[in-house]
Amino acid sequence: MKTQIAIIGAGPAGLLLSHLLHLNGIESVILESRTRAEIESTIRAGVLEQGTMDVLGEAGVGARMLKEGTLHHGIELAFGGRRHRIDLTELTGRAITVYAQHEVIKDLVAARLAARGEIRFEVRDVSVHDVESDAPSVRYTCGGQASRLEADFVIGADGFHGISRSSMPASVRSDYQRTYPFGWFGILVESAPSSDELIYAQHERGFALVSTRSATVQRLYFQCDPKDDVDNWSDDRIWAELHARVESSDGWKLKEGKIFQKNIIGMRSFVSAPMQHGRLFLAGDAAHIVPPTGAKGMNLAVADVRLLSLAFEQFYRRGGQELLAAYTQNALARVWRAEHFSWWMTSLLHRFDDATPFQQQLQRAELEYVVSSRAAATTLAENYVGMPF
Q1: Which of 99, 180, 200, 221 does the annotation list as catalytic?
Q2: 200 is catalytic
Q3: Residue 327 catalytic?
């Protein structure tokens, strides 16, 4: 089988790239190891930057996001028993939308299938070949049958644990990473929202986050040992910990409800460079990971594939290769900005067990500066809503 662009991975990056290519008359085939039901039900948070919202809207897949997503004009920082609002829109003229990643995936899958796009689910034994030539290919097994997909280019959008990044020679690749000594304990709760906007709480017991999934579901997190087990946490213990970390002296209280999901996620910062080798290009989590504190993961994936779609449009319509050649440089400029912001937010808000009293006071001083200085608040707001695409 032949196509112009072979895409490995049906996450937001792979699906959106395939749809953007389709809108420009460029053929693609997506190979995905999971089932459709699995990719549409893997629950992950979604804070969408203005640029991401614009790309989805322009691609014709933003209608449900606009209808069901929640537009947020600010966030709150909570520490020392008080809450402080950062007015994103007043400071930057932009906002963010809370719309879960799996809902974005549902919209993109529906759009691709409506356009008769080719998505092959439940593929196995995927391998990439001849990327240094002008005729790369992907071999895989589907339904027990060995297959070969020939393409002009191969896109690795198969996440941190996929095969695409490791298909690049180690001699040409540099990996940069930091693994944090804590994780996030996340819960989904059946209840009305506790707050109209996200609350990022810094507390001596550790970080906590209050967010809303819908009018009837809350998504709450608190800092924990990444090696902990969810079975160690009863519902009563979870609520006691969250109440202690997020409630303020003004009488505001967290709303409780039925907890119907618990999970623990580790936290890391990771970048692999370059993001291209020959005719293999990486996008999204295959090339970079950010801790969720800065809410940048899916937005970086969208920024990557937007660059790739423009580069392939130039290549196929005008024969130009300048944008393809500059992909790594252009993508990493945004990636490293987001990596720094995510690291900074993580360092600002989390409890570090090895922090000295001096370092703890520096952390508090920086928080006080952010909420009292317009310049500092603007820096946070600009990075949070995302730089223009």
Answers
A1: 200
A2: yes
A3: no
